[in-house]
Amino acid sequence: MSLCCSSASEDLGCRRGDFSRKHYGSVELLISSDADGAIQRAGRFRVENGSLDEQAPDYTPGTWRRTDVHLENPEYHTRWFFKYFLGKVHQNYVGTDAEKNPFYLSVVLSDQNNQRVPQYRAILWRKSGTLKISLPYSPTKTLSVKSILSAMNMDRFERGPREILNPDIQKDLLVLEEQEGSVNFKFGVLFAKDGQLTDDEMFSNETGSESFDKFLNLLGDAITLQGWAGYRGGLDTKNDTTGIKSIYTVYQGHELMFHVSTMLPYSKENKQQVERKRHIGNDIVTIVFQEGDDTSSSFKPSMIRSHFTRILHMDRECQRNYLCFCPRLKIFSEESVPLFGPPLPSPSVFTDHQEFRDFLLVKLINGEKATLETPTFAQKRQRTLDMLIRSLYQDLMPDLHKNMLNRRSFSDVLPESPKSARKKEEARQAEFVRIGQALKLKTIVRGDAPTSLVTTGLCRKEPWESQSFCSTFPYDIVCSDSWGQSLLVATETAGVMLVDGKTLPPVQVFDRTMVVKQMHVLEPQDLLITRADKGKDARLYVYRLSAMKKGLEERQTVRSKCDSRENKLEKTKGCHLYSINTHHGSELRIVAAIRNKLLLITRKHPRFEGFSAVAAGVDSPVEEFQYIREICLCDPPVVMALVDGPTGENDNMICVAYKHQFDLINESTGDAYRLHHVEANRVNFVAAIDVYEDGEAGLLLCYNFICYYKKVCPFNGSTPMIHSNTSDFHFSWNQMPNAIGKILLGLISITFCLDIVDFLHILYFI
């Protein structure tokens, strides 16, 4: 069992009778015959056609009223162990129930959930499936394992649960969780010409049609298989044995690969096209694209000879012309497949391509998930889960009387260790977390993370392997930031260049009079922020990216320092360092350091839509910024980072590094709080990076060869609660980095080390 989300329109328990027939079709006996009328195959299928039979024959498709289109049993209800347990301090227990069946219990105390309230999360692993619950945390009342199991309706045991202290148990529990189902999906796409009655005829189509190509473009992107590093869906990405190209897309965190019949290898000698059937015939869900203008399709799902395929979709065009691609959809599913949403609209004709794509992809994913709940698949999954649980239990049996299993069965879930054993327990927890984080890293790199956090091949290599963006850049680099698919690079002697990483030469954006020392490209806000020059002449400059892009497209004169006079933020003269909030909320904040003075700057909110450079008639956004306050420090900061508070009201902080310490400064009051003291004779501060998990702020403090992570939330009014936490950790570099930055890719925070000598080789660490 798992916490699941059914269709928002009705839940499965309501999909019965008239409602079921109206929205999810009816079960029919469908018979396929050959050209001579002889019956070939028959089967009972649920047919969804959007009440097509009730339409008037002269119906003209109009605007579809969108139904609730969303994924059922979404992943925030699944894969808890990977997301909330793995790589964090938690406890695992093993026991046997009253029927002598082994079970496992995993418990973690979440620092805070989305409502910023501490809570317990628990997973019960049994042969019948997994059960997940959340329980409230009370600082005055400890929670026991017995009370957790009681909340899961387990009160009787043949052998009481004992804690498993071996950190390798995390790997085994991760395998158990993988039985919940697929992370990514592969679907078949079969092209059928008008009048084709057998799957041999359909699989023998060498090419598609213009409308079929439009449909494929709607599904996803055409990718070259050779060298493809994303989800491959069983296709060959080395030797082109399964075709040269395929269709691929990412939808709501899921990677989808489509096995397109006309893209798979074709054989003139093999009339059955076994190679094509090997892939599409083993896909749980298959789309059949039916050509032709006949209003009553002759297609029957029993035409497809497959013991594996359960769901079939039939697409065809309605009122086809050269200007319109207007698909009509029918859905066939075997009688044993549970109902799944979204319900097909009535009529089942789509005129909005994006709405059709959303509906189809969600229906495909939900269809595969529903099929996995049929007796055939569910029984196999239950047998596999039972076998894995019993096998793991047998492996743990020798440890029942050793220290590997602790008799802390009904003790507090997170007990306080005695002082004499505290160091030993802390060392065990540190090793436990280290192994869990390593497992998590391998799972992500392998592309098997519960949500497709990595959707390109960029991070699928080992994290320590550098990625070459441009190997022949001729200038020494000062700083850089990404702009679209390119890099905006500031050099020592050649100004600022735009590099696309391809064979095209770099394009000069600013000439050598503009000596940029820091920069940030903020594409969502149409801004470029730079710090140029040094000493008393240093200033912050702000530009509109759209104006710069227009100038590059029109091949205007390269900008100089003189051309940037209107882009100065005047009060920033003498600025030697600045920082911006990277966890953007509703307001952009900039802190400029001028010796030991901090200047807080914010961007004004436009009062009405349409307030822009074009409306104002100027290219410079300087007037959109306002100066808020000044804060004085005891020493000039070497490193800074802005930390967003949970409310944004009097709880935003500035992390500064100077002398031998990192301090937190309250933006509203200027009060300083000691965050971390560096125990070293010489300190080379590298970076302070703000990172966020479930809305909670933390800081990665980087100096010398060390990166130290420290959580700085929750906030209590204007005072940050800074204390040692089990989530704190540190790691070391083999060499001292020159700079460390952050990229947010999906849900992963990735830091990369930039070497000044070889700036365009980027080293990724998860």
TrEMBL record:
Domain CNH: 474-766
Domain Rap-GAP: 173-392
One GO BP annotation of this record: regulation of small GTPase mediated signal transduction
Coiled coil feature spans: none
InterPro entries, sorted: CNH_dom, Rap/Ran-GAP_sf, Rap/Ran_GAP_dom, Rap1_Ran_GAP
Protein name (record): GTPase-activating Rap/Ran-GAP domain-like protein 3
Family from the record: Belongs to the GARNL3 family.
Annotated organism of origin: Gouania willdenowi
Transmembrane segments: 743-765
A GO molecular-function annotation: GTPase activator activity
Keyword list, A-Z: GTPase activation, Membrane, Transmembrane, Transmembrane helix
